[in-house]
Structures are given as C-alpha cells and as structure tokens.
Automatic annotation (TrEMBL):
Constitutively interacts with CASP4; required for the localization of procaspase 4 to the ER. It comes from Salix udensis. Keywords: Apoptosis, Endoplasmic reticulum, Glycoprotein, Membrane, Transmembrane, Transmembrane helix. Critical mediator, in cooperation with CASP4, of endoplasmic reticulum-stress induced apoptosis. Required or the activation of CASP4 following endoplasmic reticulum stress. Belongs to the TMEM214 family. It is a multi-pass membrane protein. InterPro entries: TMEM214. Transmembrane segments: none annotated. The lineage of its organism: Eukaryota, Viridiplantae, Streptophyta, Embryophyta, Tracheophyta. Residues 142-152 have a biased composition (Basic residues). This is Transmembrane protein. One of its GO terms (cellular component) is endoplasmic reticulum membrane.
Length: 605
C-alpha cells in the first residue's frame, strides 16, 4: 500500500497545482515525501503541472478493453483489484476542477462589475465642478484639432492669375540660360504652367469624367478656353521657335503622363494595387494645357509620332480613344489637313475592327471628322492639301473602306450610315484630288483601280455602282489603266462586265473625257479576242453568259467608234461643199458689180 499511497499523494498534488495555475499563481513549490524517506534536497521539489503529461501518464482505465486494462495495471505495479482506487481519485479530481471553474467565472463577473462601477465613477468625477480626473493611472484623451480647409481654386481662377508679361520674361530668361538644351527649355515651361495650376485639386479637374461625357465640340476647348489670348499667344510664339524633334519628345512625354494617370484610375477601379499619383496640378491640368498649345502650334508633330502611336499598344485601345480624339482635335485647330490625316490613319481603321460595334466610339469618331469637314473653307483647304509630307491624306486603301461603310448591304445599315453618306462625297473628292498626268497621280489611279474592281465585283448593287464610276474615272485620268485592266480582265470578269455595260450605256458622256481613244479601241479589241478564246473553253453556263454579254458591250462600243468616224467624214464633206459654194457665190457677186460699174461709167473696182 506504500506505493499506492505515494501515487495518491502525487495525484492530489497535481490537482492542487492545476487549481493554482487556473488562479494565476504559476509554478507551485510543494513538499513531497515519497515512501517516508528524506530527500537529499530537504524534501522540496519544484513541480510544473502539465495536463498533457498527465493525460499521457494516466489514461482513462474505464475506456480501455479488459485485456489492455489488466496489462496497464500490471505495468504500473498495481493489481486488478485496486482499480477502484484510481477511479475514486479521478472522480475527486473532476469535482475539484468543476468547482475551480465555477469559482473562476464568479470572480470574473465580480471583476467586471467593479470595472463598470469604476468607469461610471470616473465619468462622474470628470463632470464634477472641481475637475478631479480620477486616479493616477487614467489617461487623458487628446482632442484633435480640425485641419484648416484649403480654399477651392478652379481651373479658370488659376488660369486668370497667369500674367502674360511675367510668362514672357520667364521664357526669355530660360531661353538665354538653356539655349542649346531645348528639352530642358520645354520642361521648364511645363513647370511654370504647373506651378500656376498647383492650387487646382483633382476634384476641380476630373478630366477622365469630363472626357467621357463631353462632345468633340466641348473637348476641343478643354482646357485652353480658360487661358487668356495674351498668355496663349506668348506661349505658342515661343513654342513655334522650338524644333520639331524636341517638340515630338515633349509631346510623347506628355502623352505618357496622361496615359499613366489613366492607368492608375483603371487600377483603382479594378481593385488592383493603388498607384501613387503625381499632383493633379502638374500631371493633369498643366500637361493638358502645354500639350494643347504644342499641338495647335506644331500639328505636324503628330504625323512624326504616327509610327509610335500605331505600333505601341500603350497608345491604343478603347479606353484611350477620348484622349486620342482630343489630341487630333487640337492638331486640326492648327492644320485641318493634319487633323484629317490623323483621323484617317488612326481613328478610321477602328471602324472596321471590333470597336465598330461600339456606338459611343463610332459616334465620337464621326463627330471629329464632321467637325473637321464643317470648318470654314475646309473643302478648298483639304483638296489643296490632299498630300501631306509625301503621303495622301486619304489614300486608296481608305477610299475602299469608305465605300464599304457608306454603301453597305441594306441589312447592314445602321444609324451611322447616314452620317457616312454625308461626309463621303468630300472625302472621295480629297482622295481623287491631284494633278492629272503627274507621276504621283498615275500611281494613285492604278492603286484605286485595283481597289474599285474588287468592290465592283461584289454582290452589293449600290457599292458596285459607286465602284464602277470610280473605275471609269481612273480610265479617263490615266490611259495606262486600260493596259492594267487588260491584264486582270478575265480574272475579274463580273466586274469587267459591269464596267463595260456602263461604258456602253453612257459612252457619249465618257468618250469626251478621254484624252485619247486609240488605247481604248485597242483594249476593246483585245477583250474580244480573249472572249472568243474563253468562249471556246467555257465550262459552265454562268461564265459563258458573262463572256457573251461582255463581248456584246465591246462590240457596241467599237460600233460607236465607227459611227463617230463616219460622222466626222460626213461633216468634213459638208464643210468642204459649203466652202466651195461660198467661193462661187462671192465670185458671181463680183462679176455683177463689174457690169454695173461699166454701165454707169463708174471707176472699176
């Protein structure tokens, strides 16, 4: 029983340690006298209770199988008849734990009530007249002072404070200091404008919202409408003295700043990591101001940047369309031809892509070209400037696309089709403008001929009619186009039949427009020879019918030539007869006058 007594004492000690740990007393030093023997350390041991170790050392005997229980008891040196001793000890421990937990909950509740009463007491003390703030441990709350609100400054108010004289003096100073560094000059100019607009907050210039909601007519005035005429003239005159290369770099830097800010807005909208933005005064208001001035003064800079804009994805996409439209609108303020050139090469191709299904994008693009073409004397200016830096403002490829969007099949018509029909005649006239007979114009007519023959052969009647008229125009402007036609005649038989039919029906109108008819006659004879050979090899009824119709029209036009020569011969004979008659009549009258003079003794004539 000595061993059992020692084990019981150890279990009771562990229960005591557990209770003390629950009450926050930490480690407990106890005196354990095992087997009644004195220990070398005076009988005192430091014991740290570990619930985990206890569970490992004392498994629940009642839950073990019979065999394992007996084995467990034997391994601990305890016989099977003494199992009830451990059971009573465990029951006693469970009761003590339950009492300890109840005592802990009671103490916590009492502690909470005391804290609450203390808080109420502190509040009462804080509100008392003597100003007693309670115990020394209480902290006094700091009252935050409200920040002084900055006055709101609008773009117009900031622009009104820019003095033209001060700006002019500043530009003179920096020009002297950095005469050979034009890049620094332009950045210093931008910095000056940036300081002027520094009081303007982002809320006063929500450019992204403004650009999305404004029409082109309003966009073109943002933000230069707030700049005085004197300041504008001082700035653009100075910008006009800068080189095109330096301005191109400056414009590209401005575009990067705007598109970086646009990307930051999109990142915040999509929930991505927030991007640190520059102050709105320098990255937005001022940059839009200096960029608009540069584009209006030197619009050709956009043509220089066209390869970069078309090749770099950074400057492409539907989200950047309002900014691109704004930039081209600014350039058109300085040169309508540059504005139309950029519209044709940058914006118009979007109408044939995925964006063509976006009504908002289509409307914005059409608004810009309508504004350009409606400008005073726009037609005369654009026809005279049909070539810009050696490139056609409206090239042959663009004319082909224009024909298709203006003359779609009836089922593909949209609201924008009427607007295309309104601008098409002027754009077509610009595409066909040029000096007849010049080398450049000959190349243009040959390019347009290739495009128009494809459009003529399509199943769209309206498109075919328009394309055949342009085809015949090429023939009248450049007789060499007949040789080109002869080369692809059979490959484009359907289109050739339509053109021959139109020539045959309207030959009187078209014949007078040809500078020489000899090449026309030779080409038609060549067609007849090809028709004869192809008819002999025709494998289907469709080709046979087309060849027969083409040959019929060729014969009819050649017949017009024969009748024309007969009329000329008859006219020559009649003219000769009339001339002879006039001579005879005049001689007869002369003889009669001679006789009359002799009878009257008058001097001879």
């Amino acid at each position: 029983m000595d061993e059992n007594s020692a084990l019981i004492a150890q279990l009771l000690m562990e229960d005591e340690i557990e209770m003390r740990n629950r009450n926050g007393e930490g480690n407990v030093v106890v005196n354990v006298n095992v087997n009644g023997k004195d220990q070398s350390d005076g009988g005192w041991k430091t014991v740290t209770y570990s619930k985990r170790n206890k569970k490992q050392q004392l498994p629940n005997v009642s839950n073990l199988p019979e065999n394992s229980s007996s084995d467990h008891r034997r391994s601990n040196g305890v016989g099977g008849g003494e199992a009830n001793v451990f059971r009573s000890i465990e029951q006693h421990s469970e009761d003590r734990r339950r009492r300890i937990e109840e005592e802990s909950r009671r103490r916590e509740e009492e502690s909470g009530e005391r804290d609450g009463s203390k808080r109420h007491s502190d509040e009462d003390d804080g509100e008392s007249d003597d100003g007693d703030r309670g115990g020394a441990g209480e902290q006094v709350k700091k009252v935050k002072k409200p920040k002084a609100k900055k006055p709101k400054v609008t773009v117009a108010e900031a622009a009104a404070k820019i003095d033209a004289g001060d700006l002019g003096a500043f530009l003179v100073d920096i020009t002297v200091s950095y005469e050979t560094r034009q890049d620094i000059l332009l950045m210093r100019f931008a910095d000056y404008i940036g300081r002027a607009f520094s009081p303007v907050s982002a809320a006063q210039f929500p450019w992204l919202k403004i650009f999305k909601e404004s029409s082109v007519a309003k966009l073109v005035d943002i933000p230069l409408a707030h700049i005085s005429q004197d300041v504008y003239k001082t700035a653009v005159d100075w910008l006009g003295q800068r080189s095109l290369e330096a301005l191109a770099s400056f414009v590209l830097w401005s575009m990067d700043s705007i598109f970086d800010d646009l990307a930051s807005h999109q990142g915040i909208t999509k929930g991505s990591k927030k991007v640190v933005q520059q102050s709105p005064s320098k990255s937005l208001v001022a940059i839009f101001v200096v960029l608009a001035m540069a584009l209006q003064r030197k619009p050709d800079v956009l043509i220089n940047l066209l390869p970069v804009i078309n090749e770099n994805p950074k400057y492409q996409g539907q989200d950047k369309l309002p900014v691109t439209v704004w930039m081209i609108a600014q350039a058109s303020q300085g040169d309508l031809a540059v504005g139309l050139y950029m519209w044709i090469h940058v914006l118009f191709p979007m109408l044939s892509g995925k964006s063509s299904n976006n009504p908002q994008s289509r409307d914005l693009i059409l608004q810009l070209v309508e504004r350009i073409l409606s400008s005073p004397k726009a037609r005369t200016i654009l026809i005279n400037g049909a070539v810009k830096k050696g490139e056609r403002v409206v090239p042959a490829s663009a004319l082909g696309l224009l024909m298709r969007v203006t003359f779609p099949v009836p089922s593909a018509r949209v609201k924008a089709t009427d607007r295309f029909e309104a601008v098409y005649p002027t754009l077509k006239e610009i595409a066909l403008a040029g000096s007849s007979g010049s080398k450049a114009m000959k190349q243009v007519t040959q390019q347009i001929l290739d495009i128009s023959v494809k459009a003529t052969g399509e199943g769209n009647s309206e498109l075919s009619r328009e394309a055949s008229e342009i085809f015949i125009w090429c023939l009248t402007k450049n007789p060499e186009c007949y040789k080109q036609w002869d080369m692809f005649y059979l490959d484009n038989l359907e289109a050739s039949v339509k053109v021959l039919r139109k020539l045959s029906d309207e030959w009187k109108d078209h014949s007078v427009k040809h500078s020489s008819l000899d090449l026309v006659r030779e080409t038609l004879k060549s067609f007849r020879q090809k028709n004869e050979k192809a008819l002999a090899k025709a494998g289907n009824a469709g080709d046979y019918a087309s060849l027969k119709e083409a040959d019929k029209h060729c014969k009819a036009i050649l017949g017009q030539f024969s009748r024309g020569r007969g009329c000329v011969r008859s006219l020559f004979i009649v003219s000769a007869a009339l001339a002879m008659g006039a001579v005879i009549v005049s001689q007869k009258e002369y003889w009669d006058l001679q006789k009359l003079s002799a009878m009257l003794n008058l001097p001879s004539l």
